[in-house]
Amino acid sequence: MRIEGTSDNESNMSEAAQTDPLVLFMPSGKRGRFPVGTPVLDAARKLGVYVESVCGGRATCGRCQIEVQEGSFAKHKIVSSLAHISEKGPKEERYEKVRGLPEGRRLSCSALILGDLVVDVPQDTVVNAQVVRKAASDRVIERNAAVQLCYVEVDEPDMHKPLGDLDRLKVMLEKDWGWKDLLIAPYLIPQVQQILRKGNWGVTAAIHRDMDSSRPFIIGLWPGLKNEAYGIACDIGSTTIAMHLVSLLSGRIVASSGTSNPQIRFGEDLMSRVSYVMMNPDGREAMTKAVREAVNGLIGKVCEEGGVDRHDVLDMVFVANPIMHHLFLGIDPTELGQAPFALAVSGALQYWANDIDIDVNRGGRVYLLPCIAGHVGADAAGATLSEGPYRQDQMMLLVDVGTNAEIVLGNKARVVAASSPTGPAFEGAEISSGQRAAPGAIERVRIDPETLEPRFRVIGVEQWSNEEGFAEEAAKVGVTGICGSAIIEVVAEMYLSGIISEDGVVDGAMAAKSPRIIPNGRTFSYLLHDGEQRITVTQNDIRAIQLAKAALYAGIKLLMEKQGVDHVDTIRFAGAFGSFIDPKYAMVLGLIPDCDLSEVKAVGNAAGTGALMALLNRGHRREIEQVVGRIEKIETALEGNFQQLFVDAMAMPNKVDAFPNLATVVTLPERKVVSDDGGEGGGRRRRRSRE
Amino acid sequence: MRIEGTSDNESNMSEAAQTDPLVLFMPSGKRGRFPVGTPVLDAARKLGVYVESVCGGRATCGRCQIEVQEGSFAKHKIVSSLAHISEKGPKEERYEKVRGLPEGRRLSCSALILGDLVVDVPQDTVVNAQVVRKAASDRVIERNAAVQLCYVEVDEPDMHKPLGDLDRLKVMLEKDWGWKDLLIAPYLIPQVQQILRKGNWGVTAAIHRDMDSSRPFIIGLWPGLKNEAYGIACDIGSTTIAMHLVSLLSGRIVASSGTSNPQIRFGEDLMSRVSYVMMNPDGREAMTKAVREAVNGLIGKVCEEGGVDRHDVLDMVFVANPIMHHLFLGIDPTELGQAPFALAVSGALQYWANDIDIDVNRGGRVYLLPCIAGHVGADAAGATLSEGPYRQDQMMLLVDVGTNAEIVLGNKARVVAASSPTGPAFEGAEISSGQRAAPGAIERVRIDPETLEPRFRVIGVEQWSNEEGFAEEAAKVGVTGICGSAIIEVVAEMYLSGIISEDGVVDGAMAAKSPRIIPNGRTFSYLLHDGEQRITVTQNDIRAIQLAKAALYAGIKLLMEKQGVDHVDTIRFAGAFGSFIDPKYAMVLGLIPDCDLSEVKAVGNAAGTGALMALLNRGHRREIEQVVGRIEKIETALEGNFQQLFVDAMAMPNKVDAFPNLATVVTLPERKVVSDDGGEGGGRRRRRSRE
Q: What CATH number is given for B147-223 in this structure?
């Protein structure tokens, strides 16, 4: 066998090799010459092409399916034909009869190479775009799962060679599959004897090859052929726990679901949960129990949905923010509530699922991504893995907006990270008419700059508020409040239409122009909707949004200063919030720095996608462990100029920063200073010239 | 620094090195030159001389004590003087004041080299001769325990470098002690934070460097300096569980004790326990529970005796015969009760103590030596490690006599092993007047070949039965039966005095000569003692002993044939039985082959000694794992000539084998055939010439 490069220099080849058939695997493009009669699976293995196989070439598991592409591939100088692969033999025919083979599919363990071939390895690993929101494209995660199923036939006991049952099993796993120095999960030791006999000496072992101990482990053992194993990727958020159930053999997402984090009953936000631990002697234990129960419940839910026995779940990857991470592991999070925000543990961790009361297979393993810093958790590490700023040359800004915004900025050369205390305003809390995204919530807002009249969309209603039939439909769900995405839009539109100044003050003078500008004590509000519920945007609401967006922007700016850049090339919004807001409005409001709008993308639960990547490919675990080790962590509170950056960022979009890209798509208002406290913000503009 | 050989060729040394002081460490003899001012501990480390240290050179643990030997050591060309070592500094003086230092002892971490020195490293590791019976000599086990205590001072948390508490602990353990890629016992993860703060960032970590996973593990963590750690070596016998409690830091045996194996209530011998498992659905579980409880109880006992908190036990080594081994681990032993006697597992195993319900430190580890074969267990492996036939050129026979005799024969070149079903006769069972070794039991017997009158000793009585004062003393304890060692002696003496023939038949004709030969149905008995209890040796007793010794001898012969030898150089009797029998009588009876009597030694609980070696030196674990892999196992039942060897061995000492060494110290009777079944044994003698 000779492995060829992609370049076509076949001149160096020996006569013998020249006559061997050439096989090209797609989509990897790996190619090589193999003697006539070589099984396609062997050729794939030798070239390092990933083809699953559980039965080890016995044509019983059906996992090693491939397809031959017929035709003349001029570029590769290959004429591939079905005549160049052997007919189905009796084993493969038996498999087809019993289990069925899709049209065109062959078992690569049984199909022999007879001539030049282009072989397609079907990719069942596309991540479902609806599950993991990807603005860009569906993603193919190269598979290299930590768990592999290996069927072996073990020698029967022999008095002359009194090796134990387990020891003979290990011998065969080394002989057939190459596993050296195998260890075994202790719980299995008393079962080996019976499982071997029940399987009539044919058994399937689940090998975990990514144990923190470096040596491969037998974590599961079944009599006969076991042809399916599952994994779980889970993001434990403060509010929501999200989970994917995945086939470790095909890479297919079997089910995805989410549930509320039951810790909410101990405190809505992270800090109130830390307080609960500090105030209640059993608080930590109760919250650990609650989140583990919720995870177990959610495992039950995804398994039921996918028709999977939870005991077939063998590997799990978790991401979480630092406080959730600690509580999940039974670690007191009190230290995270105060400076210096010391993590009890920051590195990646592994457990037996059973060690932390997670009910899956008794030998199931748990991997947790590393935390980046006290407020930049394993979830941020997951998002970083998913979006990969460190894999590219462009300067990428990755923000995950929640109660704490986690911010990562970088490229191949250098990555910096920080968190910024945005507070819950973006989630609709602290906003007078704020509410969670649910039917009845206003989700989109436009304001006519001439008339100052609004039009809006409500969740659960097809029409905009100015369209025919809206009133009828809206009556069914009600118009009950403003959700996070609409808060951004309404404040941005208020700014664009001149209702508020760049400093965020509602201009009382506009009351003369529109009855929607209404006095509210010493300040003014904007009346967005006057129905059963009167929905206004108050001066306080605007201040809350300003504080939140200024915190986020100042954090971003701090990282940009660390990187020595005055703009970013691309922006990724992770998290649910990012999926619903319009990047343009986020920029008008100055949540994010100026950027080509086509380079601003929402990437959904990127943390969960990162967990999924680490689940399906253990190489990604090493990758993120190394990357996190390299990320420079910035503690915003310790940076001398954070306060100034924050104050500048209170203005819309910003007191000092220009937004040239934004200006090409939106006409930003003339600067207009309307102060509610007599202050005059323009003075700070001079700061820029000093820098 | 220059490490010198033991030869004195200093001619090659450079000028600089020549002027450096020469330091010689005893008893290892390792030597080297070090610059003036080098701490003695550093010199030891560089030479690979084992000196314990927990505090890492802070002069607080006191573990690194050494003594300077004063005088002129002509052989080594060293004049060693107390003037060649620095005076005690303030740290060492503080230690001496607080904790005390024995006269002449110095802390090697603080004492600096000023001139040539001969340094004695005190060996506290001598295995107590009374605990581990060693006919030969006390043994020094070179120390290399799996667990090491390491004190470190960890950096306080820093917002700028947000590494977790655990991660900073690892950094310091690598920096100060060189531990790379450390893992941690999961149970500790939630505790790290608090322990670090409680110790004001100074903590002692217990590092286990012999995990089966290959990577070192933090298994324990204490605030401040933790200066003691213990280990347990345990032999789980069918009848008795024996245990040593050892300081892992000094190697000192703190306490030794034993307890009955409570499984006795399920069956006296191994096979009856296997039957119990087969007959009772919960039998395996009940026996596992019983033995684990007994082990836990015994741990409590040795810890109480040694004044040690059981939670300070961090490492344990177990040996056991295969059935005890399986039951202890919760493995069904049924397969061991029938051919092919399949072990569920034969290799060495490791566990968290907690995994198998052993109550020591939560991070305590358990190591089990490998089993050699279905009837040659980890106990035989322990005895093999202790006596080391594979370490020497002589052909060594190692026998552990119990209900099953475990036999190992070999030398450097090759080791073979087998078990032989001797039955319980040697332990006094199946013998009419047999009893366990206890006060009142006859333990020594001599018979006058002229008068056939016996004299004997009774356990608990100083005098021999023919000495003055015996009757008085014996009245206090009674004369209640014959223990194992005396059974050997009385039968051997009966043979030497002509009462029985070489075929073991009591010669009725002798009744004319002595009233002690008394008829008993169709056979005759020998009246050993006629007191409150009438103690006789019946024809059946002799048959039982013959069957037992023939089984043992035939097994030995089989191994000798495999090795192609007709004699052995040295014999080791392991086990309690071996400690009490007189090798001469064992040879007269033909339990063991002919050998120079000075080369026959009882070695006590060699299995336990092997466990102790594996506890104190992890190198011995690798050693025995490799050796067991090389040992050739012989299944006696499968060997065609076992039956013939067995029949030959029924005779005393043997029908066909000569005992030239024995003949030099004992006058063996003329061959005399007295058959009770008309057979004539002499015919078989011809077999020898055929071989």
A: 3.10.20.880
Length of chain B measured in residues: 691
Which one has a higher pLDDT value, A485 or A134?
Answer: A485
Cβ contact B157–A342 (<8 Å): yes
DSSP A234-268: EEE-SSEEEEEEEETTT--EEEEEEEE-GGGGG-S
Residues near B209 by beta carbon (within 8 Å), at least 6 away in sequence: B146, B147, B148, B216, B618
DSSP state of A617: B
Helix spans in A106-220 (H) = 165-177, 192-198
B374 touches chain A (CB under 8 A): yes
Q: Hey, what CATH topology would domain B387-424+544-679 get?
A: Nucleotidyltransferase; domain 5 (3.30.420)
- Cβ-count burial B196-231 (b if 16+ within 10 Å, e if not): bbebebbbbbbbbbbbbbebbbbbbbbbebbbbbbb
Task: Give dist(CA B166, CA A89) in Å, integer.
Answer: 57
How many angstroms separate the CA atoms of A144 and A165, rounded? Answer: 29
For A:121-180, CB contacts with B below 8 A are: 157-167, 170
CB pairs under 8 A between A and B: 163
Whole-number pLDDT of residue B3: 52
DSSP 8-state symbol, B386: H
Cβ contacts of B322 on chain A, cutoff 8 Å: none
SS3 B519: strand
Contact A243, A291 (CB under 8 A): no
The Cα B205–Cα B152 span in angstroms is 8
Instruction: Check: CB of residue A157 under 8 Å from CB of residue B342.
Output: yes
Restricting to B residues 185-204, those with a Cβ less than 8 Å away from any Cβ of A are 186-187, 189-190, 192-194
Quote the CATH superfamily of domain A230-368: Domain of unknown function (DUF4445) (3.30.420.480)
Question: What band does A674 get if pLDDT is binned at 50, 70 and 90?
Answer: low
Q: Which of B193, B341, B372 sits opposite A331 (nearest CB)?
A: B193
Write the class of the CATH domain A2-120.
alpha beta
B204-233 residues touching A, CB cutoff 8 A: 211-215
**pLDDT of A139 strictly over 70:** no
